[in-house]
Amino acid sequence: RLNCELLVLGGGAGGCSVASKFASKLDKNHVIIVEPSEIHYYQPMLTLVGGGIKKVSDAARPMRNVLPSGAHWVKDSAISFEPTNNIVRTKEGISISYDYLLVALGLELRFDLVEGLQEALANPDSGVSSNYSPHFAERTFENLKKFDKGNAIFTFPNTPVKCAGAPQKACYISEDYLRKHGKRENANVMYKTSLPVIFGVKHYADALNELCKRRNIDVGLRQELIEIDVGKKEAIFCNLDKKDDTFEIPYTMLHVTPPMSAPESLRNDKILSDETGFLNVDKMTLQHPKFPNIFGIGDCTNLPTSKTAAAVAAQNRVVFNNITHVMRGEEPRAIYDGYTSCPLVTGYGSCILAEFDYELQPLETFPIDQRKESAIMYYLKKDIMPSLYWFGLLKGFWNGPEVFRKLFHFGAPK
Ligand code: FAD
Ligand code: UQ1
User: Fold this and answer.
1) What is the ipTM of this complex?
2) Which of 163, 212, 300, 351 is catalytic?
């Protein structure tokens, strides 16, 4: 049995960043982090790994080196909650009691929910890959190198996902690769999404639709990948507007964005999570509506915004301030505006930086038209963001670009 002042579940982007802020403030061993993984991946880099721009080893660091030394790391998984007694139980049977709890469990990739997908990924010659997993991202690039002719298909599932732009980034980078290597004429590039639009924010969707038209990318809306026939190399889709209507398409390469769900421990818990299984939090304060000593951050929450590390950056200051207020017996008063961001890499050397809020209104940092493809944004994503993540966000120093936005816009309303 362990006890602490602040218990943090998950040592990913959100958990590590908030734990770092508190570890330098509270006495040693007053912060416990429960995290099962030996390796911490900088997931946004996996998109570049899929395009052969970075190696998967560039995206990995030992967990021990990234978690704050002022916190106590319990290498274990949280499995159940007892919020009325302020206790969390772990897989190894440890009970941890806390004064304050931060839930930062991320989300689960559900490769099991598409028939044949696990079998396909287990076979390096299947032509199937996924940038969403560090184990299968390099395979996207292998498949591009092997590609001779046929269909290159990129999918988006019928569930909430993290980084809703990543499925199309894989498509754009691959299309550019095929073009640059003289294979484009023999390729049909298809983007198949379960969504009714290419991107949820109209401001950017207009630019992306235009891009797909110009580059001859065949966009299929409301189409969900439900099965892969590995032997025949066929992807089976269903038309979401006519449920019984399924159709198969042969592929040479298939990039799958798997269905995703809330972490199992939250899905099983009916007190802390909502009906979708994600942690219930107030969308402005990030505090749990029933338990004032519980807060959430990042992908595991039911915040109605796009799940990204950029959102976590904007949330971590709000969570830190509000937990501090509650520790002092005050009401939480820091407010999150839903800021999220997605650098939509459109090829080798170009990127559209989408940034928006809860209202799906653009909330752009730079005083330029960010809908336009830009080389600067590409280098920001490729060369600056990794350091911002490892040395800024994870250490608790980076709270998102709000200060720069205000500076660049000279105090204008946004
Ligand atoms: P995570 O960082 O995923 O951390 C969750 C942690 O919880 C993990 O370390 C996990 O091991 C741990 N955990 C799981 N189960 C348990 C348990 N039972 N007990 C304890 N710990 C547990 N974001 C951007 O901002 N920009 C991008 O360009 C971008 N691109 C992306 C591209 C790809 C391919 C992917 C996969 C993601 C991308 N993201 C991007 C999204 C970003 O990585 C996530 O939104 C971010 O990591 C969320 O942080 P988190 O702390 O909520 O979850
Ligand atoms: C960001 O803060 C962040 O987290 C470190 C990301 O994840 C890698 C991002 O992709 C983006 C775009 C931001 C926002 C930062 C700026 C400078 C616009």
Assistant:
1) 0.99
2) 163
